[in-house]
Design a protein that fits this description.
By secondary structure, the chain is an alpha/beta fold. The protein contains four helices and five strands. Helices cover about 30% and strands about 20% of the residues.
């Protein structure tokens, strides 16, 4: 299963089962910064991805992310949607 997270919250993170792919998009990328209040919960998510363009639009450097978060581009995003069905969206 693939989870698309557009807005991050403690409640959403608690509902994400481990061993499912998770992509953080839009403003959810702010929760991926080192020392965020969600750092410990996000570190347990494997695999964990972020759309690189969303980082760029918000001026976030990859080095500022929590360890274990993998930036991806749009072709990789499409590949993950094909390989991981069904898809759950968290807005």
């Amino acid at each position: 299963m693939l989870h698309l997270v557009f807005e991050i919250s403690t409640e959403v993170l608690a509902r994400l089962p481990n061993q499912n792919a998770v992509i953080f998009l839009n403003n959810a990328v702010f929760g991926l910064l080192k020392n965020s209040k969600w750092q410990n919960q996000i570190a347990e998510i494997v695999p964990c991805y972020v759309l690189h363009d969303d980082l760029t639009l918000r001026g976030i450097e990859i080095s500022a992310l929590i360890d274990g978060v993998t930036p991806i581009d749009y072709p990789q995003f499409v590949h993950l949607t094909i390989e991981n069905t069904p898809i759950q969206t968290w807005i």
